[in-house]
Amino acid sequence: MPVKSYLAYPMQDQREALAQALKELPNCEIVPSDNYDVFVIVTDTSDDAQEKEIEEKLLKIESIRFLSLVSGYEDRTTTNTNMQGGLA
Length: 88
Prior knowledge:
Helix content: 25-40%
CATH architecture: 2-Layer Sandwich
Order of helices and strands: EHEEHE
Number of helices: 2
CATH class: Alpha Beta
Shape: elongated
Distance between the termini: 18 Å
Number of strands: 4
Largest sheet: 4 strands, antiparallel
C-alpha cells in the first residue's frame, strides 16, 4: 500500500483550476496552503499500479507549474538471506 506526498505549485492565476483538477483524483487528500500558492497532495493506494495511474494523471494536469515528490512509503516486508538477522 504505497503512500506518497507531493507539493504542487499552480501556474500563474491557475490556483482554482488546479484545485478543481486535484479534487477529481481518486485516493488523494488535497490540502491547500493558507498563505502560499501551493497544494499538498497525499496519495494512499492499494498497489503500485494504482499509484502509477495517479502519478500519470498528476503529470498531465496543465495548471501545475511544478510538482515535487516529497515523501514515499510502502509497507513491504522482505526477507534477505544475505543479511544477518534475515530482514532487509
